[in-house]
Amino acid sequence: MTQPDPDNAEMAQLDALFAQASQGSDMAPSEAFMAHVLQDALERQPVAVIAQPAWWRQILSTLGGWQGMGGLVAATCAGFWIGINPPDTMPASFETLLNMDAVYSDTVDTADLLGFGWDLEEG
Amino acid sequence: MSMPLDAEIDTGDDVLLARYARGDAAAARLLVARLTPVVFRHAARVLGDTAEAEDVTQEALVRLWKIAPDWEAGRAKVTTWLYRITANLCTDRLRKRRGVALDDIAEPTDPTPGVEAQLQTQARMDALQAGLMQLPERQRQAVILRHIEGLANPDIAQILDISTEAVESLTARGKRALATIMAPQRDTLGYDDDTA
Fold first, then answer.
1. Which of B21, B54, B182 comes nearest A33 by C-beta?
2. pLDDT for B58-81, tens place per residue?
3. Which CATH number fits domain B8-106: 2.60.40.1930, 3.40.50.1370, 3.30.470.10, 1.10.1740.10?
4. Given an 8 Å threshold on Cβ–Cβ distance, is A21 in contact with B20?
5. Contacts by B75-79 with C-beta closer than 8 Å and gap 24+?
6. Out of A26, A35, A48, closest to residue B1 by CB
7. Which residue of A has its CA nearest to B118?
8. What is the pLDDT confidence band of residue B2, given thresholds at 50, 70 and 90?
9. ipTM over 0.85 threshold
10. What pLDDT does A54 receive?
């Protein structure tokens, strides 16, 4: 036995029912169930991993970051260059410091310098 | 349980899922608050049983938590994926339940007594639920997704793993059948009070 097709009024009533049902007020999960689901979610949640910075980043950080590292490299280059090619205007004391006036001399007897006072102790 | 939904109302489910996978507990709370009612409502409508709907909801969401670290953003909408899992879980349950008489299916919970309008609304919702339970399972799923959850036909096609044309056919036939099933209750449910 076939049932008669619903008329427009019946379809409109059904639409009204759907609209009411779509608000979902009659089908809300309980608070207790929501709490249970949350507990599940937190228990299964991957633990947050705080990544360790790479070794070179740690060194960089110790030296004061990129700025500190830049200053260090600049100072190293400048020192190296001054060592190779000292400027003419450099004071003599700097040259002494850099050991640039060291020359071999036969006239100085190192025994006189190094042996000072030993003879007194030895008698 | 109060949850700060308003602050991140525009944040996408996939973004929250990525945050969940990175260990963000706030994202977990937001996802639970947002998705649990959606899954539960669909399962309850399809199964017509609150306790079973809770089981299905829990299982569907556990699957989501498990897949979260491997979720590829943009692959699919999180809700579509969840609806699909829920629909399949409901189908499994209904298959196991075959042979159980309609009268044995639990009625939705009683409303707060005393207010006539509330009772009337509840009576209509119960009648709708009873009518839905008489539809074949696929028709029921399609009608609920289209007319109650308000999903678009292409989304429903993805969820039910059928063509969009098949969805159109299912929903049209389902709606007609439901209207026919509910026609005899027209007077008792007082539709004419609203539509007059």
1. B54
2. 999 999 999 999 998 777 889 999
3. 1.10.1740.10
4. no
5. B76/B158, B77/B13, B77/B14, B77/B155, B78/B13, B78/B14, B78/B17, B78/B35, B79/B13, B79/B35, B79/B38
6. A35
7. A26
8. very low
9. no
10. 75
